[in-house]
Recover the amino acids of this structure.
């Protein structure tokens, strides 16, 4: 039985993880980290703690859906008490991404901005389309619920990296994330990533390739947040016996 520590347990995805793990063979929740207290009941056998060291000691692997600053604290503590880490938190800054890489030198870490199979495949399709559709303008649009804090979404940023890689471009040089005013004509290499927010949209990503006379749009829509919790559980099961290293969702799904 793999004992799972849930980090971000009171959040939208964290709550689903706890529910989904109840019906997962070979895995169960053993510890949850909370800042204050849980606003729902949980099996009394589960260790509920606001002490990171106690939390890590109470589990075999960790699944994290929290916020960047929380994920940062987790990574700092995990280096002292290594555990396989499935990280789903988005909006990580350069420092936090570096901490993640450092952590992966001493424990297995799977980092995925989107845990769904569909988006994992979409990244491959985008790479291929970007490479093949020479001269087509690439524009990415993401839509999420009104509560989402980071923008553009982690998924949209990963998709933009796949698109840039297909053309051997440096995404940091070509990404545009807003247009307003007299900005002039679009340049050929730019890759736009635009964010829309509203209602309860779980997650929608469209990568468009636009040319004179034709365009193609690749779209993925998550209709249930369980897609992410279940995807993270699948990733955790896969990661549990791996050696230290940084892994992607494509590694887990064998899409490479
Ligand atoms: N990779 C993927 O497939 C997906 C990634 N995500 C990402 O996962 C993250 C969480 O999303 P979601 O569940 O919607 O967010 P929520 O805001 O619903 O949950 C955030 C969780 O993080 C906890 N938290 C916040 N700050 C801290 C802190 N300083 N220390 C400890 N815990 C903290 C919150 O606890 P408290 O209740 O105490 O505030 C809460 O449990 C986001 O980054 C989102 O973009 C979301 C869906 C899919
Ligand atoms: O915050 C969310 O909800 C989601 N976040 C992830 C992201 O930033 O890409 C994944 C998913 O789209 C839902």
């Amino acid at each position: 039985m793999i004992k799972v520590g849930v980090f971000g347990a009171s959040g939208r995805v964290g709550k689903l993880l706890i529910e989904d793990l109840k019906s997962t063979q070979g895995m169960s929740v053993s510890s949850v980290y909370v800042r204050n207290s849980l606003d729902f009941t949980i099996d009394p056998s589960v260790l509920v703690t606001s002490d990171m060291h106690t939390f890590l000691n109470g589990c075999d692997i960790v699944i994290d859906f929290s916020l960047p600053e929380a994920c940062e604290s987790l990574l700092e503590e995990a280096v002292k008490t290594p555990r396989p880490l499935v990280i789903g938190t988005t909006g990580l800054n350069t420092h936090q991404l570096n901490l993640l890489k450092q952590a992966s030198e001493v424990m297995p870490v799977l980092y995925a901005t989107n845990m769904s199979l569909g988006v994992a495949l979409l990244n491959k399709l985008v790479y291929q389309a970007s490479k093949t559709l020479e001269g087509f303008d690439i524009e990415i649009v993401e839509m999420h619920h009104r509560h989402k804090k980071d923008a553009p979404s982690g998924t949209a940023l990963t998709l933009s990296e796949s698109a840039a890689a297909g053309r051997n471009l440096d995404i940091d040089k070509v990404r545009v994330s807003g247009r307003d005013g007299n900005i002039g004509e679009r340049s050929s290499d730019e890759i736009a990533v635009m964010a829309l927010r509203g209602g309860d949209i779980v997650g929608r990503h469209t990568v468009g390739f636009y040319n004179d006379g034709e365009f193609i749009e690749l779209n993925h829509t998550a209709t249930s947040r369980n897609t992410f919790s279940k995807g993270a559980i699948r990733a955790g099961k896969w990661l549990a016996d791996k050696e230290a290293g940084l892994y992607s969702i494509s590694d887990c799904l064998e899409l490479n």
